[in-house]
Amino acid sequence: MAFDGITVAGLVREMRNRILNGRISKIAQPEEDELLLTIKVQKDACRLLMSANASLPLLYFTDKNKPGPVTAPNFCMLLRKHIGNGRIIDITQPGLERIVDITVEHLNEMGDLCTKHLIIELMGKHSNIIFCSDDYRIIDSIKHVSAMVSSVREVLPGRPYFIPETMHKKDPLTVTWEEFADSMKTHPYPLYKALYTSFTGLSPVMGTEICKRAGIDPEIDAGSLSEIEQIHLYKTLCYLMEDIQKGDFQPLVIFQEDMPVEFSAVSLECYGSSPARTFDTLSQVLEYFYAARSQAGRIRQKSADLRRIVQTNLERSLKKYDLQKKQLKDTAKRDRFKLYGELIHTYGYSVEEGSDKMQAWNYYDNNKEITIPLDPELSAADNAKRYFEKYNKQKRTFEALTKLIEETEAEIEYLRSVSNALDISVEENDLTQIKEELREAGYIKKRGPKEKKARFTSKPFHYVTEDGFHLYAGRNNYQNEELTFRFATGNDWWFHSKKAPGSHVILKNDGREIPDHVFELAGQLAAWYSSARTAEKVEIDYIQKKQVKKVAGAKPGFVIYHTNYSLMAAPTLNGLTEVKE
User: Fold this and answer.
1) Which own/partner pairs from 311-320 qualify as long-range (CB within 8 Å, at least 24 positions apart)?
2) For residue 131, what are the β-bridge partners?
3) Among residues 42, 48, 53, 119, which one has the fewest Cβ atoms lying within 10 Å of its Cβ?
4) First-to-last C-alpha distance (Å) of the chain
5) Which phi-psi region, left, alpha or beta, contains residue 476 (left: φ > 0; alpha: ψ -120 to 50)?
6) Is a pLDDT exceeding 90 seen at residue 69?
């Protein structure tokens, strides 16, 4: 999953084919480290997304629009001022670096023709988007890097732009045989590592791939190669570089167990017989492979505050629950105190004054003899009264604690359901609805009189089977309630994970007989959107919706049912197609 120099080379080729001589019609900054350019080429328009996110830097064409903030950030405003409506006259990549240099021609405030450079650096935590003048002096950047942060290079307005030395790596596009041989001799690493640490633009996967194409074990020591093996390896590297220079790319995604595990701009022999899916463009590969992952990462960041609120309250409730259970355990002797009181009333006449105990026959237990401790300072009647007072006190405590424990258990179950809703959130609207739910439940401060109620348009997950049956899964407790009691009809089927928080899943009954495998698919969906989704199998309860009842006054999403069917399901979406609405 490396965004290496070869991938960047493929993107540069794609960009030159699609947007060279195009005009930048719109510039948006939907995230603090992300730009979205809309570029018009003749009558067509396309969107170019570029992200300098430290954990997931990206660059690809996309059909999806991302709304920006109401007030554009300063960097976005600067770009609009200088290169809005500018024409892209060149797109280059220095060597095989993970850098794209977009040269834009525009008219300045005086009407003179000028050029600027928009440089995208896709270098992991050092990723950046830098705006430079014609002579490569930095005008501004999406991330400022001072001398306190980096001793190698400052990225600040007014500083000259340059590419830092990448650990003295050589350019594989121009490397000579002598330079290659020297590099292999001086690296005491496995061969694949010697390749990607010696040459710019190569990832560990590509180092392994070159070894595989050359028929050499990638794990052997680089210094142990014979001269013939070195020559063969060098030729293999050269052939790969020739393909890149000619633009002979084969964008693909490698799968293992139905999950995408790797993408590449060229074919990969090192994955053997693993299935691969080819794409027409690298942008399609990157959007398919990374878009959902990037969105999930951002959603997790934006849900951090909500997670903290839920986790804090959950930990507090769990501590309260443990304390209440301990206090309840302390009331376990209450019936014994009642028995002592009754037996003292029955046999107390025989107790001598000042006695500290008495023997009595327990007529509730086959007349077994028991010993009852007494307070020698009290009479038999007062001892009985003391035991009845202890019994009544513990009885009241037991009744109160039993009710409190039920409330605490319900609160724990509810908070765990909210935590699961946060885990399955994929859109910002999902978080907005969960925040509103927490506010209504009292976990977040109520709005002020001037604060408007949040608007959200989130809809349940919607899937369809190959034979046309529709299934719906709630994203949160509000949607679970809506699905079960307003959307579903009496003969629809309702599914939920047993003893685990999760989504309500509705299988629509459209009048046809529902095959067994569709029930299994619905169970798989309920398992997937539950907190037990990492388990191999999840127990699922299912029942017709008309048998599901809501408890008056209960929190949203809480239901009861008395008779149900059960099945074991693997948490997977195989056999289901998501319907985007």
Assistant:
1) 311/419, 313/411, 313/415, 313/443, 314/412, 314/415, 314/416, 314/419, 317/408, 317/411, 317/412, 317/415, 318/412, 320/408
2) 118, 140
3) 42
4) 30
5) beta
6) no
- State how far the Cα of 199 lies from the Cα of 166, in Å rounded to an integer: 9
- How much is the pLDDT for 409? 92
How far is it, in rounded angstroms, from Cα 242 to Cα 108? 40
Contact 434, 304 (CB under 8 A): no
Predicted confidence (pLDDT) at residue 451 exceeds the cutoff of 70 = no
Record the tokens describing residue 167, joined without a space.
């650990």
DSSP codes, 530-581: BTTTTSS-EEEEEEEGGG-EEPTTPPTT-EE-SS-EEEEE----TTEEE---
Cα-Cα-Cα-Cα torsion 172, 177, 179, 183, nearest 10 degrees, comes to 80
- Copy the structure tokens of residue 346: 């029955």
Write down how long the chain is.
581
Instruction: Examine the pLDDT at 254 and tell me if it is beyond 90.
Output: no
Reported as half-sphere exposure (CB side, CA atoms, 13 A), residue 416 has a value of 16
Dig out the tokens for 156 from the structure.
């600040």
E strand spans, 78-174: 87-92, 99-107, 113-121, 128-132, 138-141
Radius of gyration of the CA atoms of the chain, in A: 35
pLDDT digits (tens, 9 = 90+) for 356-373: 889 888 888 888 888 889
Structure tokens given for 479: 């949607």
Q: Does residue 1 surpass a pLDDT of 60?
A: no
